[in-house]
UniProtKB/TrEMBL annotation:
<dbReference type="GO" id="GO:0005886">
    <property type="term" value="C:plasma membrane"/>
</dbReference>
<dbReference type="GO" id="GO:0005436">
    <property type="term" value="F:sodium:phosphate symporter activity"/>
</dbReference>
<dbReference type="InterPro" id="IPR004633">
    <property type="entry name" value="NaPi_cotrn-rel/YqeW-like"/>
</dbReference>
<keyword id="KW-0472">Membrane</keyword>
<dbReference type="Pfam" id="PF02690">
    <property type="entry name" value="Na_Pi_cotrans"/>
</dbReference>
<feature type="transmembrane region" description="Helical">
    <location>
        <begin position="172"/>
        <end position="199"/>
    </location>
</feature>
<feature type="transmembrane region" description="Helical">
    <location>
        <begin position="48"/>
        <end position="71"/>
    </location>
</feature>
<dbReference type="GO" id="GO:0044341">
    <property type="term" value="P:sodium-dependent phosphate transport"/>
</dbReference>
<feature type="transmembrane region" description="Helical">
    <location>
        <begin position="130"/>
        <end position="152"/>
    </location>
</feature>
<protein>
    <submittedName>
        <fullName>Na/Pi cotransporter family protein</fullName>
    </submittedName>
</protein>
<keyword id="KW-1003">Cell membrane</keyword>
<feature type="transmembrane region" description="Helical">
    <location>
        <begin position="211"/>
        <end position="232"/>
    </location>
</feature>
<feature type="transmembrane region" description="Helical">
    <location>
        <begin position="281"/>
        <end position="306"/>
    </location>
</feature>
<feature type="transmembrane region" description="Helical">
    <location>
        <begin position="102"/>
        <end position="123"/>
    </location>
</feature>
<feature type="transmembrane region" description="Helical">
    <location>
        <begin position="244"/>
        <end position="269"/>
    </location>
</feature>
<dbReference type="InterPro" id="IPR003841">
    <property type="entry name" value="Na/Pi_transpt"/>
</dbReference>
<feature type="transmembrane region" description="Helical">
    <location>
        <begin position="6"/>
        <end position="27"/>
    </location>
</feature>
Length: 312
């Protein structure tokens, strides 16, 4: 059991960090004035940044991928932290498509992206080589996430984790913790949501507890961003912690209203699985839209929590 969990985690984390290094190197070499101006133009306001984050996540079907990309861009100095708050809010809305279309697996593109990146890196043109590093880096990141998800099967078969999911029906706080821990371990909020949907289909959990697990999954998915920020500059760490603290705050604010959220979702559909998907969509849309007008204030708070020591 230990080996079945530890080996995928070790290899997956190694792939992930190597991919981050390759992607950062590629972006740093591509960080010319024209590209910086282009990015600044499309993220010059929180609303523009919001749509960039939403559409990027909609296309990639992974908020983690977009957050990792944002951290890479920030570390390369192509955008500043204030411009990323809107992107983070947008990713939370865009990621709801993943829940609605839970069968879609972005990780299937990992090997093709890695091979394409290596092929581009072997080209003589400098711009093409740097682009290849970015593409290969993303391929390694997805390969790392996919490798770490191998842990899901032995964990699902573990009596400890099965008991944890079953005990969650007695407490929404335990449900929140279950979703957070499980997602943090397997790096997939979609997998946690799928397990929750399966338990709901057998009427193991109440809808309120199932929704608490899904809210916890929103927190657990931030673990990927925190890993991605290791060894980066202050602005990149601010991106990771902004994503994390925003999801934590949103989950805690919504927790007392899970009964009302469940009632609204039940009015939209009779399917328990779709109710979970719709509830996550409502949660993310409400939190992000409500926070968007205060993007500058949120950025100021995060800078205070995660200061740049070099400027003090």
């Amino acid at each position: 059991m230990v080996g079945a969990v530890l080996a995928p985690f070790t290899f997956g984390l190694s792939f992930f960090l190597l991919g981050m290094y390759a992607m950062r190197t590629g972006f740093q070499n591509l960080a010319g004035k024209k590209m910086a101006d282009w990015l600044a133009r499309f993220t010059r306001t929180p609303m523009h940044s919001f749509w960039v984050g939403l559409l990027s996540t909609f296309v990639l079907q992974s908020s983690s991928a977009v957050t990792v990309l944002t951290i890479g861009l920030t570390h390369a100095g192509m955008i500043n932290f204030a411009q990323t708050v809107g992107i983070i809010l947008g990713t939370n809305v865009g990621t709801t498509v993943t829940t609605e279309l839970i069968a879609l697996r972005l990780e299937t593109f990992a090997v093709p992206m890695l091979l394409a990146g290596v092929a581009l890196w072997l080209m003589p043109n400098r711009l093409t080589r740097c682009t290849g590093l970015v593409v290969a880096g993303f391929g390694l990141i997805f390969l790392g996430i996919d490798t770490m998800q191998v842990m899901a099967k032995p964990l699902q078969q573990s009596e400890t984790f099965r008991s944890l999911f079953l005990e969650s029906r007695h407490s929404i706080w335990l449900g929140l913790l279950t979703g957070t821990v499980f997602t943090g371990l397997i790096h997939s909020s979609s997998a946690t949501t799928a397990i929750t949907m399966g338990l709901m289909s057998h009427q193991v959990l109440s809808m309120e507890t199932a929704l608490a697990i899904v809210l916890g999954a929103n927190i657990g998915t931030c673990f990927t961003a925190v890993i991605a920020s290791i060894g980066t500059n202050a602005a990149s760490r601010q991106v990771a912690w902004c994503h994390t603290l925003f999801n934590v705050a949103g989950a805690l604010l919504f927790l007392p209203f899970l009964t009302q959220l469940a009632a609204i979702s039940a009015a939209l559909t009779d399917s328990p699985s779709m109710q979970i998907a719709h509830s996550q969509t409502i949660f993310n849309v409400v939190c992000s839209v409500a926070a968007l007008p205060f993007a500058h204030q949120i950025a100021a708070v995060i800078r205070w929590i995660v200061p740049d020591r070099r400027k003090t």
